[in-house]
Amino acid sequence: MSHHLSGPDLRSPKGDARLDMTDLFVFPSVDPGRTVLIMNVNPFAPTQGEAFHPDAVYRINVDTDGDNQADLAYSFVFSPPRNGHQTVTVQRAHGEDARRHEANGQAVMSDVAVALGRVPSVVQSGGYRFFAGLRSDPFFADLDGIVNGFQWTGRDFGIDKNVFGIVLEVDDDELGSGPIGVWGRVSVREGDRLVSVDRGAHPSLTAYFNAEDVKEAYNAGEPADDWDAYREAWTAVLAHTGGYEAAEGEQALRTVLPDVLHYDRTRPAAYPNGRTLIDDVTSARLTMISKGKITDDHIPPHTDLLTVFPYLGQPHQVAPRP
User: Which of 115, 210, 236, 313 could form a disulfide with 121, with the two C-beta atoms 3.0–4.6 Å apart?
Assistant: First the structure.
């Protein structure tokens, strides 16, 4: 998996697919001088949730100074769905406000219609381009082969799956002049508390590295704490899966810990420098955990991707639930 089913026991956080962040992407727009940020959620949309969770805060965090703390944060809060319709408000926070999980800061878009059907609805306002709605899942992997001892089947887990996508395009100037770090977070309101139930940036980490009894704590955590909190346990995982010596394991982990996806816009976007929709992240992670013994699951990128915003492909037809 990528970040799909990131709760304990390979389930969605809180058992709710609407709260399950599946992937994060960062890459340049087709329009020069702009950057695309994509956060996908709900690995089995729309059968396990026909809209975004109305009590959740979906958030894309951006670190502009390399301290693994958010300097910018884009929050997405959705209305309750009614009669097949839902709206979303987009807020931009900076500085200390960006480090709070609550949606706060300036509302840059309000009451934007969510595309719950097959046709994308794109909104432009104040230098932002935005879409939220049902799309095909771009993640590709031979999941059956991975769980069956790397005996490849040729079947792509994501070939017929949908997700709910949040796609935001911004001017590069808004992100500063240097490299950035990006991660996603999903929080949900429980009574008078907002609880972080999912977070991450790099693909296929929690499934390989986190024990079941630490997944909830990981999802609630902060990237700035990752190295101290997980270095030792994750080094042990690499020793087991790939025969890494301790120093080798630590060096390998520096790419993914802290769990922040770095993107230097002066270099081509290709994972782990950002992540495009066609980057073979499954093979990259297999290579890492096996220390080069397993390098490919032989599944190609999807061919339904768009060349223009919102880039994610048209959703697949899904049989209605009985």
Answer: 115
d(CA 286, CA 65): 31
Q: What is the pLDDT confidence band of residue 322, given thresholds at 50, 70 and 90?
A: very low
Closest CA relative to residue 181, chosen from 256, 110, 109: 256
Question: Please, are residues 75 and 90 in contact by the beta-carbon 8 Å criterion?
Answer: yes
Rounded-to-integer distance, Cα 183 and Cα 26, Å: 10
> Do 27 and 34 touch, CB atoms closer than 8 A?
no
Q: Helices (DSSP H) in 54-193: which residue ranges?
A: 143-147
- pLDDT tens digit string along 152-175? 999 999 999 999 999 999 999 999
Largest CA distance in the chain: 57
Mention every residue, 6+ apart, whose C-beta is less than 8 A from residue 247: none
As given in the structure block, the two tokens for residue 136 are 């095909």
What are the residues facing 165 on neighbouring strands? 40, 133
Whole-model pTM? Answer: 0.97
Radius of gyration of the chain (CA): 18
Assigned token pair, 42: 């709900």
Question: Nearest 5°: phi and psi at 58?
Answer: -95, 135
